[in-house]
Design brief:
Keywords: Hydrolase. By secondary structure, the chain is of the alpha+beta class. The protein contains ten helices and seven strands. The protein has two domains: about 120 residues, no CATH class; about 150 residues, no CATH class. A five-stranded antiparallel β-sheet has the order 1-4-5-7-6. Strands 2-3 form a two-stranded antiparallel sheet.
Length: about 280
């Protein structure tokens, strides 16, 4: 294997700055897109799911969460197809998301009232929980009501529709090596990894630790979180170049100990084959 990058190590003390109001708006917009797909699949389920969802969120909310947060009339719900019908539930969601952010235990954020322009700085893991836990718990509510297999199937369907949407203005790469160099730069503070090019022209990313996976696997059902979040990696590869294909059998999120990314270029490989177990064990 030809090593393409030095071995990088994540910054375990990494923090993330968030323009909180804008991020809340973006998170609500994204949640509504997920829920719109669920409503298409199961249009009669929404009321009971929201009831279970808010019950779960109340359990997950820090009872000491006393920060005054943004009034709902500050947001722009004009494009919301689903959550606009449940605005009374969003206050519960806001409190839960601030609990996932653990903002009251972050010393730099000592304000009791958050202004629309405020930027907060939190540990990176808290940022990840804030970004994804609220989506996960909606599907967990479906699991509680309708069982694991139905929740898994719906998560796969919804995630597929969400992540496979075209992005014509997104970044493009002609070859795998520049693509993976760009990936290395993105991941160098959040992952422990090495990138290498193997004999058939494929490029691997061997990840041993990941701040994203560490935070996301804390949930009750990491497999459900995998369907909602990590499945997007397969679709994003093709968005960067229609000839790129990702194969992967293991993830840190699913407690496999590594993420075994292998990116292929269909123009160079007549058959897409993921490296076998012995290859990864040799690294």
């Amino acid at each position: 294997m030809k090593v393409l990058s030095e071995s990088y190590q994540r910054d375990v003390n990494k923090t993330q700055k968030i323009e909180l109001f804008k991020y809340f708006q973006a998170q609500f917009d994204e949640l509504d897109m997920f829920l719109s797909e669920i409503q298409k699949e199961q249009p009669t389920w929404m009321d009971e799911i929201f009831k279970e969802y808010t019950s779960i969120l109340r359990e997950k909310t820090n009872p000491k969460q006393s920060i005054e947060i943004f009034s709902m009339d500050l947001f722009s719900p004009t494009n919301w197809k689903v959550i606009g019908n449940y605005l009374d539930k969003l206050l519960v969601l806001q409190h839960a998301m601030l609990s996932f952010l653990d903002i009251i235990n972050t010393p730099k954020n000592n304000k009791k009232v958050l202004d629309k322009e405020d930027i907060v700085e939190v540990p990176f893991g808290n940022y990840v929980r804030f970004a994804y836990y609220h989506v996960y718990y909606f599907f967990h509510a479906i699991m509680n009501l309708h069982g694991k297999e139905i929740a898994y199937d719906l998560a796969r369907k919804v995630a597929t529709k969400f992540y496979s949407k075209p992005n014509p203005k997104g970044k493009k790469f002609d070859g795998l090596v520049p693509f993976m160099s760009w990936m290395a730069d993105l991941c160098k503070t959040t992952h422990d990894f090495t990138i290498g090019e193997i004999d058939n022209g494929s490029v691997i990313m061997h990840t041993k630790e990941c701040l994203w996976g560490e935070a996301l696997k804390e949930v009750e059902d990491p497999n459900l979180m995998y369907f909602l979040i990590c499945m997007g990696d397969f679709y994003s590869a093709t968005k960067y170049n229609e000839n790129f294909v990702l194969t992967r059998n293991k993830t840190i999120l699913q407690n496999h100990g590594i993420c075994d990314f292998c990116y292929h270029d269909k123009r160079k490989e007549s058959e897409i084959v993921h490296p076998d177990e012995s290859f990864w064990n040799s690294l």
